[in-house]
Amino acid sequence: MNAGKMVCTACSCLCDDIEIEMENGTITGIGNACRKGSAFLFGSQNEKQRAGYLAKGREVEVESALDAAARLLSGARRPLLFGLDNSTLEAQTLGIELARKLGGVLDDSSSFCHGRLVEDILAGMLPTCTHEQIHDADLIIYWGANPHNAQPRHLSRFSLYAHRKYHEAGVKRHVSLAVVDVRESETAGVAHHFFRVLPGEDRDFIAAVIEGIKGKPVGKDAAEFLGLLEKSRCCVIFAGLGLTYSLDNDFSLFYELIGHMGKWLKPAVIPMGGHYNARGFNHSLYNATGYVNKVSFAGGRVAHGDEFSLLEQVRSRAADCLLVVGADLFSALPASLAALLDGVPVITVDPFYTATAGASTGVLGAALSGLEAGGTAVRMDGTVVSLAPVKTPRHLSDEQILKRLLEKLG
Amino acid sequence: MSKRDKLQPLQVFQLLPGTNCKKCGQLTCFAFAFALIGRENKPEDCPDLLTEQYKSSLDLLNEYFGGEVSVEKTGLLIDQEKCCGCGDCVAVCNKCQGTVLFGSGVIIPRNVPPVLKVIDGRVQVVCWESCKRCMNPPEYCRVCEERCPFGALELVR
Amino acid sequence: MKLIIVIYRDVFLWSEKYKKDRTDSWEDKAAFVRLAEQDLKALGISGDGKIKLSNSVGSIVVRALADSKGRSGYGFMPVSPLVNRLTSYGEGRLPNFKRIEVTAEATKENC
């Protein structure tokens, strides 16, 4: 039996204290990982769940699967590369190179998740901080986020309970936790302050708080929220998908609030990314092209625009071949939109046999990052974490797969 | 997710024979109801409950108070189905392990191994001796139960 | 009855996806909607009742559960491929994952 430490890649917390107990190359025990992480790591040993190498539905050797995928990609006129949120930074760099070589479109889930926030953080328009700097904060706000279900260990490892000034027993609390959400979630249940906003009404709530800052009379909730802000000297806002969707990706009013807050306190915003290296993809593409997503390399030039988002590409049936890396597109998209992909050849690179893999022309099973493959990744707060594998892989890593595809495409 | 409805002593008492036969070791059936909630007794300690007449009562009581051997020792009931392994209880327990010097806010660390640990995605008691409830005199801390977002922990004593 | 459905994440269902000895699919387990108690009463649903949610995109039948903290007019469903039969996407906007307008009615159909 041996025990080792590894980094869990089930969510964007990238917990690096996971203890693994192995017997004859099989995981027998997992320490510290949450239910999500444990299910993910134990699930990686479930052969029924893992993806193999498939071409046109038949099981084939690695080489033929790679050949078939390369043929499909090189024959496509408008290929679309989607995903890479669950790949290491190294694989992402190769993915960008592949999209460039194919002259295709490149996008990831951040175009309908946190892309706008990360872009503005990278451009220096939005103040942010790392998890370590949260120790300076006296107010932690989860806005439209439900970490206990999406990133279960976030409170205990990075925010409230990890805060050095937090002490439950008898000592005056120096840090408050507030939740703004449509649902009285589990996180709201343990928060010191909960503000319920109805779906789509975040904009009205923000506007009311801004009115309050300007000295106008406001409602009870907005006044209480403003009271919290006024008492604070340093506030960290964890922005969840609830905020993005409620504001429909138009954050101008939210930024105005952050601007006002900046007059008397130090605000910071951290987007609560879902996939383990979603933020890493934004960083990689930003460094390569100046944009975080929705990029086209057609004609050897870099172009950016909403027409290059996955949703638009699928809706307008623009793409004639899809390479999906580490994403379950068919489960995540509205069914009416996914139906438009009927007849479009899809190649999936994924450790698990997902609904997307089931609907794909070619499947390339990959090693699980963190457990079977190494590399580096960017945590949700922008910190780079290195992954060291603890298990010998039976599959190629996504980095190796993308490298082989690049070689085959010449 | 709402916390599983706790049975009140009177509700437990209504499921019992009410003969006050003392065979369970308690003086009255009402005392036995309290002992069940505190996990000091098990439903099968009552001989009458084992008869056919009380089968439905026994099934219901077993559902609430059966199994979980370690609970007798610790008094901490962990509902594995409800635990998401977030480790909030582990973190707050570690944070409040120190003894607070009354009035000053100064915390004296106890330097003991952690009571709880998340194993295979669910929290487990690994060193009950470290709990403040095992100190002499005991300190009846409930912080793990209070801070569990899913209501998966319940201190029955 | 008109309802607005909001999708949320559920850690327990997510973990279910990777279970080794999985006999029933997690999609079936995710086939529920949490509604305010007064809405359930208005729809005439009690216990383990079924509800049919439909809009211009499609329709689904799910179990209706009571949510003591729910608000009338709003329902919450966990993320799953099932709920995506009701979601839609219009140009220049985000998909309506967090605000799906549906018509709800009690039904005896199976999920």
Q: What would you say this structure looks like, in words?
A:
The complex is a heterotrimer of chains A (410), B (157) and C (111). Chain A is of the alpha/beta class. Chain A folds into 2 domains: 50-113 and 276-408, 3-Layer(aba) Sandwich (Rossmann fold); 115-271, 3-Layer(aba) Sandwich (Dimethylsulfoxide Reductase, domain 2). Chain A is 34% helix and 20% strand. Chain A has helices at residues 35-43, 62-75, 89-102, 115-122, 147-150, 154-157, 186-190, 202-213, 220-231, 241-246, 252-261, 278-289, 310-315, 329-332, 335-338, 355-358, 398-408, and strands at 2-6, 18-23, 26-31, 53-55, 58-59, 79-83, 105-107, 139-143, 176-181, 193-196, 234-239, 266-271, 295-296, 303-304, 321-325, 346-350, 362-365, 375-378, 384-387. In chain A, strands 5-4-17-16-15-6-7-13-14 form a 9-stranded mixed beta sheet. Chain A has a 5-stranded parallel beta sheet with strand order 10-9-8-11-12. In chain A, helix 3 (89-102) crosses helix 12, helix 4 (115-122) packs across helix 12 and helix 8 packs parallel to helix 11. The longest helix of chain A is centred in the first third of the chain and has 14 residues, at 62-75. Chain A is globular, with a radius of gyration of 22 Å. Chain B is α+β, with helices and mostly antiparallel strands and 157 residues long. Chain B is built from 6 helices and 6 strands; from the N terminus they run H-H-H-H-E-H-E-E-E-E-H-E. Chain B has helices at 9-15, 29-37, 55-65, 70-74, 88-95, 143-147; strands spanning 76-78, 99-100, 107-108, 116-119, 122-125, 153-155. In chain B, the strands form 3 sheets. In chain B, strands 1-6 form a two-stranded antiparallel ribbon. Chain B has a two-stranded antiparallel sheet with strand order 2-3. The longest helix of chain B is centred in the middle third of the chain and has 11 residues, at 55-65. The radius of gyration of chain B is 18 Å and the shape is elongated. The two termini of chain B are 24 Å apart. The mean pLDDT of chain B is 83. By secondary structure, chain C is α/β, with parallel strands linked by helices. Chain C has a single domain, classed as Barwin-like endoglucanases (Beta Barrel). Chain C has helices spanning 11-16, 26-29, 37-43; strands at residues 2-8, 32-36, 50-54, 59-67, 74-78, 100-107. Chain C has a 6-stranded mixed barrel. In chain C, strand 3 and strand 4 (59-67) form a beta hairpin. Chain C is globular. Chains A and C meet through helix 1, helix 5, helix 10, helix 13 and helix 14 of A and strand 1 and helix 1 of C.
